[in-house]
Amino acid sequence: MSKNQNYHLPQIEMEVLQELESTINQTIPLMETCKYDKLGFSIRNNHVFGLSLAHQKLNNFPKSILRLKFLRELWFLENHIQHLPEKIGDLKYLIRIDMENNFSLLNLPESVWKLKELEVLGLGGNKFSNISERITELPNLKYLFLENNKFTKIPEF
């Protein structure tokens, strides 16, 4: 995203994108639709709709993302994120979180169970040893990806 671009986004969302670009040291391109394995963001109804920070070697979840209150889709394919912030549950419009192949993620914060719109949760390729039974509190969850983890126990649903 060039600093001179005007995407008709709220100022706070433009600032978040600029902060993220500074963090990863490259431009985040606008895409019609975000792809899980490509860097980019998409816009719907004058808000950031989707954000993919795939393959960015991030060790920490950029907290500025928590200011994208209308975010619906979030991809972090193949980074090294160990923890999601507790406040991720404040992104109440999220329908997709893809944290696959971060290789380090151990658990989810309790606030994830507040994401009642969530349809897709990608957690494959991490270090989960169990998943909370609270996953049943996500009424719209359609797809749950858990492959390639270290599970010792899976709850009965």
TrEMBL record:
Domain Disease resistance R13L4/SHOC-2-like LRR intervals: 51-145
Repeat keyword on record: yes
Single GO cellular component term: cytoplasm
InterPro entries: Leu-rich_rpt (IPR001611), Leu-rich_rpt_typical-subtyp (IPR003591), LRR_dom_sf (IPR032675), LRR_domain-containing (IPR050216), LRR_R13L4/SHOC2-like (IPR055414)
PROSITE patterns registered for this protein in UniProt: LRR (PS51450)
Keywords, ordered alphabetically: Leucine-rich repeat, Repeat
Protein name from the UniProt record: Disease resistance R13L4/SHOC-2-like LRR domain-containing protein
